Amino acid sequence: MSILSRFQTQSKHFAVAVVFLGGFTDLCVYSIIIPIIPFVLEEIHEPESWIGILLAIYGLGVIVGSFTLGLMVSRKLVSKKLGMIGSLFVVWASILFFALGHNIWMLCIARFFQGLASCGVWVLGLALVADLYGGEEDKIGTVMGIIFSGLSMGMLLGPPISGWLFTYGRQWPYVFCAGLVGLDLVGGC
Fold it and tell me: Which spans are transmembrane here (predicted)?
């Protein structure tokens, strides 16, 4: 195996690892927030009826993000990699809004940003990996399976991590999420 082909293979594996971590991070951040929303609403003296509204606002962010990022990438206004990295920064901003959110409007903005960025983190990541493995149909299924396992692991591990960290203080789940996003940003840049 030549040095060039070995480097290309390692680059592909690294891209898969970054997208795996991005998917894990995105779904972990999403699922870490869900169990603590009732406690946050109680702290800011808002009714629990806001839980459903905050979930819907996330969905609205996903819809807006899908159209916006889809148009931007398809018209080549932004690359897939840059869109993914930008989305990670938006996830980080949503975590900051949650951590500092002392009124319902900050929480609404945080959930919208989180939904908006979710599309960029894992959808653009999947598209980036699909481009890298474009001519290798025998490997793309395995690679996508690995990446989707990151999404599933994030959704599975987020709530128990949230509960455990929340027992040590309100801010610890957010610190953990910010650390995950930071790690993925280091890999993506």
Answer: 14-37, 49-73, 85-106, 112-133, 145-166
